[in-house]
Design a protein that fits this description.
By secondary structure, the protein is of the alpha/beta class. It contains 13 helices and twelve strands. The strands form three sheets. The chain has a six-stranded parallel sheet, sandwiched between helices. A four-stranded parallel sheet has the order 7-6-8-9, sandwiched between helices. Strands 10-12 form a two-stranded antiparallel ribbon.
Length: about 350
C-alpha cells in the first residue's frame, strides 16, 4: 500500500452512513438518536453508541444546522466563571440538556452588559436552539436581538419585571429583607451592608435595597451604611472595608454581606481588632459556600437554590423546544441558615 493510499484512508471522515451500517439501522435512526436520544429505544441506542465509539464518529453539527436552521446548542451567559454558585447551576443544566442531545455554549460576561451583548451576538451566529442569560439587566440591543429571534430565552437567578421570556430564580430584595430581619431579631440596631462589585452587580444592589427596606420597616429608619469593596480580591478587600467601618461607625452591631467570602474576611479583621462575633457584631453572608459552616465562628448565610435553578431552566427549555406552554415566572425561594456568626443568647421577636 502506498503512502498516498494510507493517507487517503486515515483522513477519510467517518459519516452517519458508516455508523448506520455498523449498527444495523437506518441513517435517519442515527440522526434521531443524535438529535433526540430519548425517542430511540434503549437497545437501538446502545447499538448506535457502540458504533459511534468504535468508529470515532463526530457529528457535523453545522451541516445539521443548515438543514434545520438551528443547532443542538444552547447559549448560556454567566457573570463569572470562578463563582461556584453559577458553576453549580451550569453543571446541572448541562447534565439535563445533554440527555436530550443538547450541549451548552458557555460565555462569561464579567458582570458587563456590553460583554454580554457581544457574547449574544457571537452565540446567535451559531444558530442556537435557545439562550440563557443571568439576571434581568441587559443592553437595549441585546433585548432587541433576542426578542426578534423568536428563540426560547430564560433569564435565571433573578425575578422581576420586564422579562424577555421566562424567569427562573428568586427575589434578591426579599433575601436582603430576610437577612436584615434576622439580625434585628438577634438584637442588632445599627446595620451595615458590605458588598462587592456593587456598581455592576444588580443582584447585590437589590439585596442592599432589601436591607434598607427592613431597617425602615422594623427600626423606623432606612439608615444603613452601604460599602462597596470593588472588584479586587474579596477577602482582603473585606478586611479593609471592615477596618474602615469600625473606625467610621464604631457602634455598628450587625453587618450583611453580599457573599460569604466577604463575611470571612471581615470576621478575620474583627477578630484581629478584638471585636467579638456575634457578641459585639452579628454577621450574615450569602451563598452558603463550602467553607461557611467550617469557620470559627460558622458563618450565617442564605442558601440560594443554585442546583434547582439549573434543573428548572433545563426543564423549561426542553418543554419550550417541544412546543409545550410553560410558566413564565418560577420562584424557587431561598433558605436562611442561622449559624454562630449571628446567633446571640437573647433574640427578639419582631412582629
Amino acid at each position: 500500500m502506498s503512502s498516498q493510499q494510507r493517507s487517503r484512508r486515515t483522513t477519510k471522515r467517518v459519516t452517519m452512513t458508516d455508523v448506520a451500517k455498523l449498527s444495523g439501522v437506518s441513517a435517519s435512526t442515527v440522526s434521531l438518536y443524535l438529535r433526540r436520544p430519548g425517542e430511540v429505544s434503549d437497545t437501538l441506542g446502545r447499538r448506535i453508541q457502540e458504533a459511534i465509539d468504535t468508529l470515532g464518529y463526530v457529528p457535523n453539527l453545522m451541516a445539521g444546522a443548515l438543514a434545520a436552521a438551528k443547532t443542538q446548542v444552547v447559549g448560556v451567559v454567566v457573570p463569572s466563571m470562578v463563582n461556584s454558585m453559577f458553576a453549580s447551576t451550569v453543571s446541572r443544566m448541562q447534565m439535563a440538556m445533554s440527555r436530550h442531545g443538547y450541549q451548552l455554549l458557555l460565555g462569561n460576561s464579567e458582570y458587563s452588559q456590553e460583554q454580554e451583548e457581544s457574547l449574544v451576538r457571537t452565540f446567535m451566529s451559531w444558530s442556537p436552539s435557545a439562550m440563557v442569560l443571568t439576571g434581568l439587566q441587559h443592553t437595549r440591543e441585546t433585548r432587541r436581538i433576542l426578542t426578534s429571534s423568536a428563540l426560547p430565552v430564560v433569564e435565571m437567578w433573578e425575578l422581576g419585571s420586564n422579562a424577555l421570556d421566562t424567569m427562573v430564580g428568586f427575589s434578591h430584595e426579599d433575601v436582603g429583607r430576610a437577612q436584615a430581619r434576622h439580625l434585628i431579631e438577634s438584637g442588632c440596631r445599627r446595620l451595615a451592608f458590605i458588598g462587592a462589585r456593587m456598581s455592576v452587580d444588580n443582584r447585590a444592589q437589590l439585596r442592599a435595597t432589601g436591607v434598607r427596606t427592613a431597617c425602615r420597616d422594623l427600626l423606623g429608619s432606612a439608615e444603613c451604611r452601604i460599602m462597596d469593596t470593588g472588584t479586587g480580591r474579596m477577602a482582603a478587600a473585606a478586611r479593609d472595608a471592615m477596618q474602615t467601618l469600625l473606625a467610621e461607625m464604631p457602634d455598628v452591631d450587625g453587618i450583611v454581606f453580599s457573599n460569604d467570602v466577604l463575611a470571612l474576611g471581615a470576621t478575620a479583621q474583627a477578630q484581629a481588632q478584638g471585636v467579638r462575633v456575634p457578641e459585639d457584631i452579628a454577621m450574615i453572608g450569602f451563598g452558603d459556600m463550602d467553607f461557611s459552616n467550617c469557620c470559627m465562628p460558622a458563618i450565617s448565610t442564605v442558601r440560594p437554590p443554585r442546583e434547582e435553578i439549573g434543573d428548572r431552566v433545563a426543564m423549561r427549555l426542553l418543554d419550550r423546544l417541544q412546543g409545550k406552554s410553560i410558566e413564565t415566572s418560577i420562584d424557587l425561594g431561598f433558605e436562611l441558615l442561622a449559624r454562630e456568626s449571628s446567633t446571640r443568647s437573647v433574640e427578639i421577636n419582631i412582629s
